[in-house]
Amino acid sequence: MGTISRADRNIAWIERNCFIPEGKFVGQRVKLRPWQKKILKSIYGSPTRTAIISYGRKNAKTTLAGFLCLLHTCGPEAVRNSQLISAAQSRDQAALLFALMAKMIRMNPEMDGALLIRDSVKQILCPEIGTVYTAVSADAKTKFGASPVFVVHDELGQVVGPRSALYEALETAQGAHEEPMSVIISTQAPTDADLLSVLIDDAKTQADPRIKLFLWTADEDLDPFKVSTIKKSNPAYGDFLNADEVKTQAANAKRMPSREADYRNLILNQRVNRNDPFVSQGVWKENGLSPRNEDFESGVVVGLDLSERNDLTALIVTGKGVDGNTSVQCHFYAPEEGIKDRAVKDRVPYDLWADQGYLYTTPGQTVDYEFVAHKLAEIDRVYGIKALKFDRWRMKYLRKELERLEIDLPLVDHGQGYVSMAPALDALEADLLNKRLRHGNHPVLTWNAANAVVERDAAGNRKLNKAKSTGRIDGMVALAMTRDEFEEEQDFDSWLVSA
Description:
Helices cover about 40% and strands about 15% of the residues. Strand 13, helix 15 (about 395-405) and strand 14 form a beta-alpha-beta unit. It is of the alpha/beta class. It is built from 18 helices and 17 strands. It has three domains: about 5-215, 3-Layer(aba) Sandwich (Rossmann fold), CATH 3.40.50.300; about 220-275, no CATH class; about 280-499, 2-Layer Sandwich (Nucleotidyltransferase, domain 5), CATH 3.30.420.
């Protein structure tokens, strides 16, 4: 009889000692499914520093995390006198994993006698081995003097942006151990710029064979409401994941578009912003035809968002064709100095865009508004600017450049609140839904569109919210301001006809 492998030993220990803590099969001894065994065989079959496990909700992610924590607390993976931590973004999420582990322990008399559960501080101790498991959360004032050998990052997809102080503190704290291990178990984050997405994309490169990725997700080009699509992101579908309940959620999302983003993110495990996105990726792509030069010949409307001097400045030119469609010309500016560092920080290729001509750079650490002023003068000379709509933020600095260079333009102040932005967004949305825009898939504007999130007031009026967006949206702000001008022109023309 051959020696049992490390992975098979761990699988056997879980199935012998763990009981299902809640749900359809509560109280039954665990019987790991083939896809769960595949995860364990990969993690424990070869050296693993980090395992990333991601699939749709209600596929027992937290329960699997509990099995792994117990395996390292009192099972064959336990290291004498070691510390183990599970980390979550909220106290409630941290308490959930701890509670499931406590239930599993109390269902097994042998395990219950060997472990000490400290509910008040969310700790589980194994006195015989000397291991201590602790559940922590990002919203608690926790001091990390510990040096855990095993860490579970629970629902890391809830981290917004590429950085997490809790994640970094725990990962760096493991440096004292020869074979530390981290398990990330979560549904996907909403955007490419979020921490979990960065880690998943890095794992896909297979640059480090000790990073294992287990990702169940549905491709975005598939019908999101078909059972075959749902199964791609839910390995437990029809097993301990209630198929009828998931079908109901799919039907609700299909009937009520406001629920689709949540459905795609939580059920299909796609990277979808669950905030209120202004435009879907599909609709944006449908407007991706190249702009036509003749659309600018009868004059243009320009939208300008200066933003911070060391961030993006967006200058968007729009011209309406005789067919009623609108062509879009984009001019983005960023300071040349530090562009590679900002590319890493924002996780977008500013330097490549600059090389390809999609982004203008100006010397120094800030955007030089003289370059912007000269570009405006050129646009006015070539096409004729009917209105230059601007956000008043930092406009005083550009005014000085325009005055110094004796450039006279029809400046129109455009507020950024609900009163001004709601009709602008309505007009832009109508153009997009009716495929009346030609933006040419300009990469910087397309990135801004993917980031754009709206905020609503009590009456349902909308404005773009930079604070809630996960990346730059300057180009979309500038584009929206130009559409408001065309909407006003259309209303005036209609009034003349009726008069």
